[in-house]
Inverse folding.
């Protein structure tokens, strides 16, 4: 290695791991077509004192996005897909809230983070929705910018790209990656499942550094085709396998004399498509011309053109990069949470300095003040939140009134539960956050393992009942409004049948009928048929009418034999015939 001996590098890595409290990492370097370094450092498992090797498996997280761009490029090569045809030409039911984006979104747009949507990550992170279910819910996610106007990092559009690949190939995205990338490149250690990974003999354990300690944390569960967001970040690989991935990119798409992908479509991936206004990258690190291509970011590095992508998921951080003009690439995989782990980029930039004889930068010293500022800023945020709390306030209702299920058509169901005196917010029966009263009708929910903190504001309807909860799920748009779900019994046929029949009300007859086994209707002669919408308990509102309701009542024998009919300015009794 030019101007940088292996022994010096090993010492540098050891020092860097200690400084940043990262247990271990694996590094691969490709230069002039050859793998000149592929090695593990530190520990993949602290408790069992197991070392990282070149074959140790790490989730590469968002470094997966370049693989998804490659799957699209391979289909373009095969004439089955066009970068610039609308997605709706291939997936006719594709629909976003923005009608123009719906009609014009292309595969190229999916891969360049210019959809107009912010991240909306809690929509998938907090659910087990299938790929198709997330696809069908896209229309309910609010954009915050115009289509193609600005770069906004976004995972869900890469999921759509993976769905697109699967539909066109007649298989799943995972199967396509396995057969057309892993198998062809000889990436035999790589897979797409944390379940499969944890059954192997050589995988890295996830860790985070907090409160002055390195702590083991659970894997983010992602089991192949069972996980919808695979195309955005589910590949698990090793340094030895990722070296092969770098080689095909540096070799202009060629593989052992043949063409793995056409040079022109590989170049599309490495070409800037949208400017990224990264002020910190410019001011702190001197990275000019930051932009994004297809599944890859890119910027200048000391006069060189750098193609790169980082990745982070619970307990892991990675960085894959290459300089095509200098014919050199580096991959660094580590098993510590990105919240206090810049090691993959520090190692990568230091290697480029040494390999290319560039003016050296002490990247540890350069990076530390930034991370110290982040830690300080997080503490200040907590202090500010504490200072804004209004002391001595109480919720407006008994705690029981807040419990229940609340639903949003995009984000799914948030359940507020009381477990042995501990309030919890459970998202789609997957993600559990501990809740505490903040002030008035506002509560705070925390997921400690990821430092996720959300504020919930409960809203009353005109009757003073808790009807909705507004949650800061996506900071770039308005609070997401979840509406209380009615009692589950009110969609049960056998329960609803108790309310059917003919009622006498104010010398008129009201006929209550059950349609489609789950919908009650009310009909009065001379008036249209009204759909009864479940409200609370056994009370229903009339669809399309404000202030009208029917509440069914039991007699002394527990039979539903009468009802209270409410309309503006009048309350009547209806008796079943």
């Amino acid at each position: 290695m030019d101007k940088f001996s292996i022994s010096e590098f090993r010492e540098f890595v050891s020092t860097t791991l200690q400084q940043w409290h990262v247990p271990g990492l694996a590094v691969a370097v490709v230069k002039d077509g050859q793998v000149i370094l592929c090695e593990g450092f530190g520990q993949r498992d602290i408790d069992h004192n197991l070392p990282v090797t070149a074959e140790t498996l790490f989730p590469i997280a968002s470094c997966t996005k370049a693989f998804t761009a490659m799957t699209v490029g391979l289909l373009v090569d095969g004439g089955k897909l066009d970068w610039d045809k609308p997605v709706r030409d291939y997936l006719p039911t594709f629909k976003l809230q923005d009608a123009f984006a719906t009609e014009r979104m292309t595969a190229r747009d999916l891969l360049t983070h210019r959809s107009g949507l912010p991240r909306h990550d809690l929509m998938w992170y907090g659910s087990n929705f299938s790929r198709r279910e997330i696809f069908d819910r896209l229309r309910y996610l609010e954009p915050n910018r115009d289509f193609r106007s600005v770069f906004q990092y976004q995972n869900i559009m890469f999921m759509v790209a993976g769905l697109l690949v699967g539909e066109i190939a007649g298989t799943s995205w995972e199967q396509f990656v396995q057969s057309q990338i892993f198998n062809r490149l000889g990436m035999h250690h790589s897979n797409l499942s944390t379940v499969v990974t944890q059954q192997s003999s050589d995988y890295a354990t996830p860790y985070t550094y907090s409160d002055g300690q390195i702590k083991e944390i659970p894997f983010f569960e992602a089991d192949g085709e069972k996980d919808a967001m695979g195309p955005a970040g589910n590949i698990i690989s090793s340094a030895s396998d990722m070296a092969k991935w770098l080689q095909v990119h540096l070799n202009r798409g060629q593989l052992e004399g043949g063409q793995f992908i056409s040079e022109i479509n590989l170049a599309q991936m490495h070409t800037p498509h949208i400017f990224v206004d990264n002020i910190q990258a410019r001011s702190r690190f001197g990275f000019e011309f930051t932009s994004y291509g297809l599944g890859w970011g890119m910027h200048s590095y000391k006069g060189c053109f750098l193609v790169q992508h980082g990745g982070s998921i619970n307990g892991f951080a990675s960085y894959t990069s290459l300089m095509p003009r200098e014919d050199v690439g580096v991959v660094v995989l580590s098993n510590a949470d990105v919240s206090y782990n810049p090691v993959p980029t520090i190692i990568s930039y230091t290697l480029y300095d040494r390999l290319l004889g560039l003016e050296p930068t002490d990247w540890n010293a350069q990076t530390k003040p930034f991370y110290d500022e982040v830690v300080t800023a997080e503490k200040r945020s907590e202090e500010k939140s504490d200072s804004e709390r209004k002391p001595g306030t109480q919720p407006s209702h008994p705690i029981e009134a807040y419990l229940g299920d609340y639903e949003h058509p995009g984000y799914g169901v948030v359940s507020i539960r009381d477990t042995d005196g501990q309030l919890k917010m459970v998202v789609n029966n997957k993600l559990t956050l501990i809740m505490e009263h903040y002030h008035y009708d506002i509560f705070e929910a925390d997921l400690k393992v990821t430092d996720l903190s959300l504020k919930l504001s409960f809203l009353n309807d005109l009757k003073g009942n808790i009807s909705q909860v507004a949650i800061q799920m996506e900071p770039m748009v308005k609070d997401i409004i979840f509406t209380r779900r009615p009692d589950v019994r009110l969609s049960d046929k056998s329960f609803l049948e108790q309310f059917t029949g003919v009622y006498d009300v104010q010398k008129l007859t009201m006929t209550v009928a059950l349609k489609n086994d789950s919908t009650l209707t009310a009909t009065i002669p001379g008036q249209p048929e009204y759909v009864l919408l479940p409200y609370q308990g056994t009370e229903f509102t009339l669809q399309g009418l404000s202030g009208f309701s029917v509440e069914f009542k039991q007699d002394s024998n527990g039979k539903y034999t009468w009802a209270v009919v409410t309309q503006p300015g009048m309350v009547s009794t209806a008796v079943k015939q």
Q: What stands out?
A: The chain has three domains: 6-41+53-377, 399-485, 489-576. The two ends are 93 Å apart (CA to CA). The domain at 489-576 is CATH 2.40.128 (Lipocalin).
